[in-house]
Structures are given as C-alpha cells and as structure tokens.
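ok so for the tutorial part 2 we go from a plain amino acid sequence to predicted structure tokens. step 1 is just haveing the sequence, like this:
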Amino acid sequence: MSGSRAERPSSYRRGSSEFSLVTHSNMRRKRMTTLPPELVSLCLSHLDPTDRATVPTLLSCSLVSSSFRALATANSLWRQIADAHYHQYRVPSRSRLDEFERDAFRYYASRARKDQRATEIVKEIQRPKDRIPLIEELRSNSALGSEVIENPKWTAGGDYAFTEQNAPEDWLSLRYWAAECRKALLRDEALRLWRDISIRSVANADADDADNSNDQMEEDLERGLDAFSAFRGLDPARLPRERYDMSNHPRLLEATAVPPPHFTGVRLLEWLATQVVDYMKSIGLEPAREGGFHSLDNHYVELVWRRAAATPDGPQNEGTLPMTLVHIFCALVRRLPVARRLGIRAQMIGYPGTVLAGLSYRRRGGGGGGGEEEDRERDRARIYINVFGEGKILSPERLRAMLGAMGQADSEQDFLAPASAREMVRPPFSTTRPSALCQADEIGGFARQCLRVARNILTSVRAGDRTIGVPIPHELSVEALYSVSHALFLFTSPHALLDRDRDRREEEEDVPAAVGADTLQYAEWLESLVQSEYPLDVSYLSETVAPLLPPPDRQARLRSLCAAIREEDATPKEPKVVNAEIKWPIGHVFRHRLFGYLAITRGFDYRCEAGEQCMFSGVFLGSVSLEMAEKS
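step 2 — the prediction. this is what the tokens look like for a chain of 632 residues:
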C-alpha cells in the first residue's frame, strides 16, 4: 500500500511574503509551488457566497495560519456573504452599519450567534409556560429583534428549514412556533412603521420643501399599505425586491423605453399611463370580478401578486380592489427609468367613491430645458387614471364636472389633490361623533389612506360573515381584525404619540395626551384580542397602549389585565390525564398519516364525534378521539 498510497491533504506554510503549498508523500515534504497572497485571495473570492459550504470552507482556511486568517476573514469576502444571508430584503440597521463596513466577518459572526439564539428560543417556547419572557427576548431590538427575521431555519423551504429529514420528531411543532415567532417580529416592524408614519403626519405638516415632503409621503404610503400583510405572516420587505424590481418586468421596460418623440406634456403622461395599465392587465392584475370584491385576500398586495402570477387568466384570479390596483400602478410608475428621467411622479388620489391615480411632473420652474412658458405648461400638466375602470383617463375638468353633479362643487376639500394635501376619508364608521371628525381632520393624508384600507378590511370581514357560502376561517378573521385595531389606534392618535416622544427625548415625565373616544374604543379592541388570541403581545399593551390611556382608572385596569396574563403564563399547567393511552400532549402539531393534513391537538374525545366526510375532507381540526389516535 505504501507505493500506491494517495497523497495526504495539502497544508500551507507561510514564507516571508508568500504561501507555500506543501504535500506529504512517502513521509517526505516537497515544495510544490509558491502562491502569492493576491492569488490566494483571488481563489477565495470565487467561492459562491450563497453556497452553504462557503462559510465552513473559509473558517477552515482561517485556522491554517495567521496569514491565512487575515485573507479568509477579509471584508471583501464577508460583506458578500452577509449580504447574501442577511441583507436580501433589509439593509443593516444604522447602529450596525459601521461594524458591517469596518469588520464584516465580526458582523456576520454576531448575526449568526443571534440566529442560533433565536433557534434555541423556538425550541424552548414549545413548553407550556414562561413563553412571554422568551418572546420578549426575541423581540428586543438590543438582543435579537428584526435582525433574526431572515433566519434561514424559519422559512418553510430550503436546506436549513425544519423538516422531517433534518429535525427531530417535533419538527412540525418547531416549524409552527418558528412561523409564530416570525409573525411576531413582522408585526413589530409594521407597528413601528405605522407609528413613525402617524407621527410624521403631524410633525411634518408645515414642511417648506414640497418635493421632499411629497417624496416622503409617497414612500410612507407605499410601505404603510404593504405593512398590513405582516399580520398574515407575509414579509412586506420582499415586495420592492421581488415584485417591483424592474428586472422582473422586461416587457414593461421595453414598452416604455423610448417615448414617441412628438409626445409632450399631457400626451406623454397619457401614453405612459396606457402602457402601464395594459401591462398590468396582461399579467393578471385586473379589477375584481363579480363575487370577489369582498375577498379578504384582495387587501394584501403580496397575495394579489401571487394569485396573478399563478393563474393570470384562470378562475382563481378573481381580480382585486381599486386601492390595491392603484397602489401597484403607482409603485411601478415610480420605478420606471423613463419616469425618473422625465421627472414624472405618480400619486394616489382619493376621489369620492373610488381611488384614482394621478400623474404629473416634478416642478422645475423656469430652470428646465425649454422656455419659461413651456416649463409652466409642463408644471400644470396633470391627468387622472381610473385604473379600476379599465384604465380610463380623465381630465381635471371632467372630474370637477362630476363633482358638481354629486353636489360637491362648492366643497372646501380639494378632491383632486394628492393624499398629502386634503381630507381623504372619515373614520370607518357611520356613527362618527363630532369629536372624532375633528380628530380625523388632523391626520395626515397618507395616514388616512391606511385608515381607508382598515375600513375596507372591516367591510370584507363583515361581508364574509353575512354571506352564505363564503366562510372566513377564524384565524384569518382574527388576523384581519388585529391589524385593523392596531392601524386605527395608531393613526387616530398622532398628537398623543408625538407628545410622548417629545417627553421621552426631553427626559420629562410622561403626561398622557388627550385622545378621542374612538381611540379609546380601538384600545379596547386591542385589549380584547390580546387577552383572547395574542397573549404573547402583552408587552405592547403595557408599553404602548397603556401610556396613552387617561389615568388613573383606565391605565390601572389595563395594567392589571397585563399582570394577570403574565401570571397565567408563568403558572404551570395542571396535567389533565384523561386516559393513559393518550400519546400526544395538548398543543402538539402533527401531520395525519392517513389523510395528510396538518392539525394541532386541542382536546380528546373517548370516541370519535366527527363524521366520516369531515375527516376525509381534511378539515377535522377539533378534538382528537382515541379511535383516531390508535389508527394513526
């Protein structure tokens, strides 16, 4: 064997400024070649940052010598790896940006440790007690927070996910709790965003820079509407990358690359609007069909995109609502190179009874390329598109005439102005009190758009509850109501939120600002939902809701409720042994071996109480009988 023995693995030794490749053969050491550091770095740079073997490879290289460690931990390598693993949809936070740019290897190691701790929390949170401290550690920005949202083990697919192949027997429970933890973090992101938008709606009301103010309003409006999907477990941060990135829409880029040379002003805006509307129709983004107008999924932009991509012309694509269509239209126009080159902006317009899209030019006064009169004409050019109404283009004169026919010609509200300049909608109830109307007048326009979405979601839930044959699953109804309660609470109390932030910055004692009766009602909604459906969100009640309530009675009552929820979480659950043959504990998530559906154990019957049709249809999610336990 000695004569045919294969060469042993290579090792490296450091020369003065070179790397020597040394092999062991027949117990001799022979110098094969000498590699300069630049060549070693070049070899390492060809490792695929998305390959799961790249990180172990670089770590192994870093153990060879101090010189190899310097090359294997270079910023140029680990910045790409960190971007591939952690920055697909989120950039580094401001507090971590300096560390990422200065020492990407250390930054990646820190993020990996946080992912490991988050995975441990998912495993520990399966126990029936002391879940609130674990979820609070997970949601703490100083500890883990949003930095672990993109934990690869939390996704349903991929090499790292909890599956039967790479996880123990409780892999289904791990996947369930990983999804619940991820939902909690996504909700926290959405609530922070809504809070910031609500505060900006009153803090920046008197901004002098109109263009910058409008840009901020458009960004807030887009992100604020997308945030509703976080309550469905969808990641709103994926939309700009996966749905609105122009590299995913080559046909639209080709159709709008070169505008007709003789089109200017209004005609150019009309041409661009027509191209975008026609493209949206071609990929399945159409108005809601009969029977689908009150579908709950139509309020979540990501679900609308998925449905259109899956079956653009199929019966499952039931279309969507005016708000969602205009939202997608404006998002696409803003990212078109031709719109950026020509200074075209797209804004949502809350016309009575519907939502329109408005196209106009950014103001440039007399400093443009044309004459002064041409610049003024360009600044005045504006069109309105009824995206829901087959993309019909309307002039300002036509819309004002329609307002006159509706008796709104002398209204003080400018219904044709962008959302940032006027009253969009009233609070979403017909029994609105005068105090609530005054409160709504002070809310920024883009905040009112989010309120409008909240009202539409409530309408869909109520319509689904009343419509025979269109049942809404309990979980979806609760998620929808929870998102609406949060949105209404935050967007109807902007001044109270602003005053509390100022008190914190100036290190003064928190003095609750006066909030309206509607805000107090929405706080009660949150109390009820947290108590019954979301006990792990109790910290939101105590830290955000309670300080805005009038003392002392309302605050004391809420804090007492929070203490009771925490006490119940810390109390060991009494074991309820019904039969020694019971195999699974309450709360165990399993896949049925006979019928294939996923379910969670919430109780036991001595004998099966469900019918055969119910069990075979895969909707049997109630109590599990001993007969079924023995069969499966």
